[in-house]
Each structure stands twice: as C-alpha cells, then as structure tokens.
Amino acid sequence: MQKIIETSLSRRSFIGALGASTALTVLPGCVTAPAVTGSNSAAQALLDDVAWNLLRHEPTRATSLGVDTGAHAALRRQLGAAGPEAQDAKAATLRADLARVRAFPTEGLDPATRTSFEVVESAYATAIEGMELPYGDIPVGSWRTAPYAVIQNVGAYIDLPRFLDSDHPVTDEGDAEAYIARLEEMPGVLAGELEKISEARALGVVPPDFLLDRALDQMERQVADARQGGALVESLVRRTREEGIAGNWEARATEIVTGQIAPALEAQLAELQRERALATSAPGMDAQPQGEEWYRWSLRSSTTTNMSPAEIHQLGRDTLASIDAEMDPILRSLGYTEGTPGQRMIQLSQDDRFKFAEGDPGRAEIMTFLNERIDWIRGQMPRAFARVIDPEVEVRRIPPNEELGAPTAYGGAPAVDGSRPGTFWINLRDTDLHRTYDLVTLAHHEAIPGHVWEGEYSNQLPLIRAILAFNAFSEGWALYAEQLADELGAYDDNPAWRLGYLQAAAYRAVRLVVDTGLHAQGWQRQQAIDYFHTNTGVGLAETTNEIDRYCSWPGQATGYMVGKLEILRQRERARAAMGTGYDLRTFNQAVVEGGNAPLDVLAGNIDRYIGTSG
Q1: Is 142 helix (H, G, I), strand (E, B) or coil?
Q2: What pTM does this model have?
Q3: For residue 589, pLDDT beyond 70
Q4: φ/ψ (deg, to 5) at 551
Q5: CA–CA separation, 404 and 416 (whole Å)
C-alpha cells in the first residue's frame, strides 16, 4: 500500500516541478512580471492575471462572483474538469503563478496591494502542499477540506444542481444556452470525480460506513430525480418561462439529464456501493493512509496557523470552561440549576416558549423571525463601523433534497457585480432543528455583521481577494460578529437569547475538542456525539449531523474559534497600544477592509492600523 502512495506522490511532484521550471514563462492570458520596478499598476495587472488563471480552472466561481461577462463570458458555459489530471493541471498553474508573485518587487507598493501579494502567497503555498497529498478534494482559498471527493456533503451531485439553480443566471437566450452547455459538461465532471474516488479506494482510502450510508441515500434520490429530468430540467424550464425566452428547453435539457447525467450518477452510485462493502466505522483520518499527514495539513489550511492537534484540543477545553462559567448564573436565574450548562440547555430546549410550530407554518415563522432580526442589526451598524454599507440579504431555504447532509445554515456574500444578493441559507428539513434563542445569533453569524457583511467589503478588493477566502478569517469574523452583536445589545432584553449566543460560542469551542478527538486521538463517532450533545445542549439530530460533517471535512470546524480568538487578541493589542486613540469602529473597519486573509497577514494589517495612531 505504501509503495502505491509513494508512486502517486512522485507523479504529482514531477508535474509540480515541471510547473515551477516554467514559472516565469507566459501562460495563455498571462502578463510577464516587470523587470525593474514594482509599480501599483503592474502589481494590479499581475494580481488580476493570477485571478483569471485560477478562474479558468474554476469557471463556476466566476459565475458565483458575477464576473463571467465581457471578455470572460465563455466561462459561463463551462464547469471545469474534476479528475486527477485536472487537479495536476491546476497545481501546475498555482506553482507558476506563485513563482511570479514571489518574484515581483513589492517594496514600493501601497500597503493594501502588498497585503494582496501576501494573501496569494499564503493561499497558493497551502493549496500546493495539499495537492501533493495522494487523495482528496483540495481547496484553493476556500473553506472545505475534503479527503473524500464524493460523500454526503461533497461532490458535483450536490453542488452543481444548487449552483445551476441559484447562481447560474437565466435572463436571456444566451444564458439558457450556457445552462445547456453546462449540463453537457456535467457527465465529464462526474466521471472525473469517479476516477478520483476509485483511485483513492485503490490506495485504501474508504470513507466510514455511516458517511457512505448518508451519501448513498442522497445519491439514490438524485439518480431517481435525474432519470425523470427532475430539478435540473425544472430550473431551466421555470426560469425561461418566467423570462419569456422561447425555445425547446425542456426537451433538450431532459435528453441530456436522462441520457447522460443520470448514467454518470449511476456510475458514482455503484462506486459508493462498492466502497460501502469495504467500509468500517472508524471515523477519523488517523484510520486512513497518510491520515496523520493529511489532518495536519487540513488544520493548517483551516486555521492558517501551525497549531498542533494537541494544542487545538486543549484550547477547546479551556475555552469551553470559560464559557460555561458565563452561562451558569444566567441559567440559574431562569431556574435551571442541575447538571452541566450543556445539559441544562437541553432542558431549556424543551420549553415550548422557544419552539417553532411544526411543518410549513413553523418554516414561515422562522423566515419571518430571521428577517426581523436582520433588520434590527442593520440599524446598529453605524455604532460599530466607520464606513457603513447596506448589503441586500436574502434568506433562503436549503433545497429539500440537500437538507439531510447539509449544515444547519450557511451564508454567502453578494456577487461582485451586485447581480445577486448576499444569501443566508437555512436548513428547514425539521423546524425542531431551531429555537428562537439560537436563531438570533445565527442571523448575526451568517448575515449581518457576519458573512454577508464581511463579504461585501472583500468584494471591493482586487478580484483575487474576492476569490480567496480563509476559513479562520471568514468563520472567525462570523463568530466575532456574534460577540459584536452582543456588545451592541442584541440580547440585552432577553436572557434566553444571550444563552443562545453563549451556547453558540460553546458549540465552537467543543468543535476544537471533538474534531481533534476524532482525527488525532482515536475517538469513536458515538463518543464524539455524546461529548458534543452533553456540552452544547444541541439536539441529537443536529449533533449527529455535525459530527458527520467533521468526519467528512477534517479540520474545517476548528477555524471558527481559532479565528475569533485571534481577532479578539488583535483588538486588545490595538486597544493597549493606541490608548485614547483607539476606536472600535475604526478597528472593525481595519479588519474588514484588510479583507479575508490568513491570521498572520491580519496581524500585519493591525500593525499598520496601530501605526496610524502615531
């Protein structure tokens, strides 16, 4: 087994070396780095060129950002390849562009532009290191670290139907034709993924049985849907009808989906069934070939630090103890006195005062509640930021056929060109997933002043900065946004809402313990479920969903609390250094206008902010 892995690494290393040896040659569409000076205009040209080189590998990102227009309109008809050769080609591009960025003279650049160079260097170096691992779906400046390229929450069978329905525009005939073109590319993407997971299985990489059971259930649903045309056809038909775009769209799309996409999905389903016959219940990366190495890389990618699994584990335990101490007196004041704070939160969750109705009436209540809280916090933003924006936020339900393997909620920034609002996706498969006291904090995390708010500022930076996102910053900022809402009075008049905020913080502290426990300390799945449930008070259904998420995205969940604590550390550093010159509004402005960045780059940005007080 080890010999096979070394052969795979050797092949990838060879391709990487080839890319590095030609790093200063001109790739298609590239500009050469200037030989003498590092002017801002030349630097911006290089950064833009690097961005478009990446988007050629990931054209769906161009659509999501709203930049697949004009000279780059052809990207709207593409999905990008997904197999091992595609990853090797992307790695070669990353190596070449990283060399160009490192060779560029940055001494004369303005601080913001120098920051962008530092961000690219960090993101690309980390991604290249990940691509040297022999398996997995490796992100480039993204939040998901996935050793299994197709599983319950990873894969084109989930991502592409959602993307085509929510991000791919259908406003004219050209958009509709581009939708058809992307449907035609989808079987190739599925085949590429199939090659990756088949190769991984040959190396001995098989996901745990409980993840495969979830993936098989979802894949079977998608196959059944595609055999009839289903959602992929319905989305195009509905939107062309709404826009009055004439054409035989239903017949054309149905032929592709039923004749090409459904068989490609069936092939993936068959491979997952083969893997299920080989699977064990071992949940962590320590049970996989080169798992320890893979997990250490995923922690670096997710936290942008060099913290060890043991250090992160202890940080989680210490942080949880501090949060529990804050929760205890509030729980006592409400009459909950027995058990750990997490156990008492379980009791609180059974209080009918905080529940939503079942079914569609409850779903409607949840949507109204979230929109009301977003409207309230929007009005508080002048107290927290020196330059206030006004992003559009749309609260949407996660598509029902994705909800089983999806997180409780997630948020996304608006399109760069303003064509699509910021989106707060909420899982409504069961209204019992939510309580009034936890939805308040969720709104601040996902929307304002969390992901949507921060993303609006990042969208104002050079294109490459809108593409690259660091888990520790984006999720750390969203947790910091929860605390910022507390400091602005979001929970002052409702002790239960404040408990929800503290429970959410405990939730993220527990993640540090559980993620490292699963992947580095030999924890079993049930041990992780029990620890999480007991210490957070979250229901068993959501707890199980979360634990399974950590098993399929190793390390990702650790970025939240690590990032938040670093932002708070930087805030205290600025407060101490600036004295009376410190202002919360300008500190927050410095963080968001510095953009999504690795934590060491964030520290440099705060150094410059502190320097302004002199």
Answers
A1: coil
A2: 0.85
A3: yes
A4: -70, -30
A5: 30
